[in-house]
Design a protein that fits this description.
4 helices; 90 residues; mainly alpha
Length: 90
């Protein structure tokens, strides 16, 4: 299984989201996996469908996506989300 690295997340947003996940008995891994499954399943049902298409991206996210597409991104592999968050100091 591959590790997904997420960085540059607003710390306040992350803390609030983590608390909501905890209240529902979910981990970040559970939630991110559910999000990714939804994207894949929506696409399988309708190749033109993607609920995230209408999301408004921040300027920082747009720059990050451009950097990723241009190959200007350094990737780090982690064994699990705990290791990832520790490496990111979040």
């Amino acid at each position: 299984m591959a590790t997904l690295t997420i960085h540059n997340v607003d710390p306040t947003l992350k803390a609030e989201a983590m608390e909501i996940m905890r209240q529902h008995g979910m981990t970040a891994k559970d939630t991110i996996s559910a999000f990714l499954y939804k994207i894949v399943n929506d696409h399988r049902q309708d190749a033109d469908a993607c609920f995230c298409r209408d999301l408004e991206l921040s300027d920082e996210t747009k720059r990050d996506l451009e950097d990723a597409k241009a190959g200007r991104v350094n990737y780090t592999a982690c064994k699990d989300t705990d290791e990832l968050f520790k490496r990111l100091d979040i």
